[in-house]
Amino acid sequence: MIRIDENGFYGKFGGAFIPEMLYPNIEELRENYLPIINSEEFQVEFRHLLKDYVGRPTPLFLAERLSEKYKAKIYLKREDLCHTGAHKVNNTVGQIILAKKLGKKRIIAETGAGQHGVATATVCALMGMDCTVYMGAVDMERQKPNVERMRILGAKVVPATSGSQTLKDATNEAMRQWINNPVDTHYIIGSVVGPHPYPEMVAKFQSVISEEIKAQLLEKEGRENPDMVIACVGGGSNAAGAFYHYYNEPSVRLIAVEAAGLGIFSGKSAATTSLGKLGILHGSRTLLMQTEDGQVVEPHSISAGLDYPGIGPVHAHLFDTGRGEFVAVEDEDAMVAGIELSRLEGIIPAIESAHAFSALNQLSYNPSDIIVINLSGRGDKDLETYIKWGNY
Amino acid sequence: MNRIDELFKKKSENILSIYFTAGFPSLEDTLPIMKAIEAAGADIIEVGVPYSDPIADGPTIQESNLVALNNGMSLRKLFDQLADMRKEVNLPVILMGYLNPVVQFGVEKFCQKCQEVGVDGLILPDLPMSQYLTEYKEIFDRYELRNTFLISPQTSEKRIREIDSHTDGFIYMVSSASITGAKAALSAEQLAYFERVRLMGLKNPRLIGFGISDNATFKTAASYSHGAIIGSAFINVLKSAEDQEKAVIEYIQGVINN
User: Is the confidence metric ipTM above 0.90 for this complex?
Assistant: First the structure.
């Protein structure tokens, strides 16, 4: 059984390893999040916004040409059709309603490539909340359009100039600012990482993905369970959402696809389950890429959304228990898969999601198998990377 | 007897604890800085173990961590540097750092090393009390290491009492809701919090840290507690010092005296 215990652990992973200064913030959230999100009032507002604002349910599309090529029945869960272009907004909608119910006035968030930052700025504009997004200075340079999208939406984008100036440093900076503003501010974490209750809370908001897959598959195939669900994993929020209602359905294979970068052992990789050891980062105990002295290593992936040195604790647990199968896909193979999906189905995927498609080449299955691939985001944001790569 | 216990037995006011990052500004500065802190008349030395992701620290200590790591500092290296420190340093020594490097080193081996070189206590800001009690306390106790918890103005009275009951060195009072770093002065709100905690009658001594930088802030903080801790301001002294020993002694004496 995949289940979180009362202290926020999935097996040996998770918990809340936070400085005492954050304890009141986390405690407030831990005590209140379940009563709030289980309330009818919350659910009505959440469901309404998911439907009429985000555009849910997202389609479950039978990809016939892809199915023909890979000799299985392949469905795409179209999270790329969500407002703002990725699954990230499912979580920010949930957390912004929660923040309002908690009486918070300000929102802070971290972002790597800018997708979560944009999804946060979007819901803050919708709710009229003050929004500050922390982003590594290096990432701000690399992802200028998303910086401007956030600014157009009224958010303040603050560069994180410490360390490697990327996602992990933006997360550090957001946590520091939360320490500095403990009373009126809510921190919207963008993935299933961070101290308890964040990993489980974010997974719950994203679980609408597998909830819909079940209903849609029942309608199309007469069964709720596919043989396999495939999703890419950086921190792992889209995978957690796509797996959530299948954790305890042992007949469903859960395939988590990590970014191997230039090769797992190239020194330029983000394949955490291959390279990581048990460690503590951003408040949770999980698998972590680190030196033998316990310093966190800067990961690499061609997709900015997958280059996180850790992995959500629930995924570390899926790996540890063998419930999840972990596959690593290199930059080049992900790009090829992205072009292939574009040509076969007329969908340009985010490069993160392209990793999930490339995994088909490494997996064995039967022609009668039903496979659901979570198409977590669209590729518009990655056009420059596709162009630079150029092999199409 | 543990040197922290000994110190608080003989001194109960105006205790000054000085924090610096091991390996900053240069790799081999650790022991010379410790000797200078002792010569200057401070009471406790907090040796910072640098970490790539110090989430409770402001820009000054972040930068010193990064410089120290680039200089090649690690726990292995630090224990080598501290191997003979007890021939020259008599003050209580506390290691302060984040949990991950300790976990990688091996908690038991880390504690054993601490005892071997003569470390008296630990401050690990991201080790929560619940985890300390279930996984760490027994090991720390076995190696005679005092563990210090932090409290902040947001910490509830109930939680402060709980922390007090599980502490046997001193309590680290974070002066405001903030990360480390020097501030201009102590506000009325901060003083009210110091007074509130003072009146709780805790069993452990209290040292106030974060935002303490000079004689005025030290004296004010110490008037509500047993003393105070200086970190970022001291790092800034090290950063700009030409004659390190002289600068350390002048700065610390300036904080204590006047």
Answer: yes
User: What is the rounded CA–CA span in Å between residue B146 and residue B94?
Assistant: 9
Chain B (184-213) residues lying within 8 Å, Cβ to Cβ, of chain A: none
Catalytic member of A79, A110, A200, A212:
A110
- Tell me the CATH number for domain A55-85+206-389: 3.40.50.1100
In this structure, which topology does domain A17-49+88-202 adopt according to CATH? Rossmann fold (3.40.50)
Question: Does the annotation mark B29 as catalytic?
Answer: no
Q: Do residues A232 and A311 lie in contact, with contact meaning Cβ atoms separated by under 8 Å?
A: no
Query: B192: distance to nearest CA of chain A, Å?
Result: 18
pLDDT tens-digit readout, B71-129 = 999 999 999 999 999 999 999 999 999 999 999 999 999 999 999 999 999 999 999 99
CA distance A67 to A74: 5
How many CB atoms lie under 10 A from the CB of residue B186?
20
Answer yes or no: are the C-beta atoms of A309 and A299 closer than 8 Å.
Answer: yes
Query: For A29, how many CA atoms within 13 A lie in the half-sphere containing its CB?
Result: 29
Express each pLDDT in A185-237 by its tens digit.
999 999 999 999 999 999 999 999 999 999 999 999 999 999 999 999 999 99
Which pair of tokens denotes residue A272? 């955490």
Q: Is B242 a catalytic residue?
A: no
Q: Please, what sign has the CA dihedral across residues A310, A315, A317, A322?
A: negative
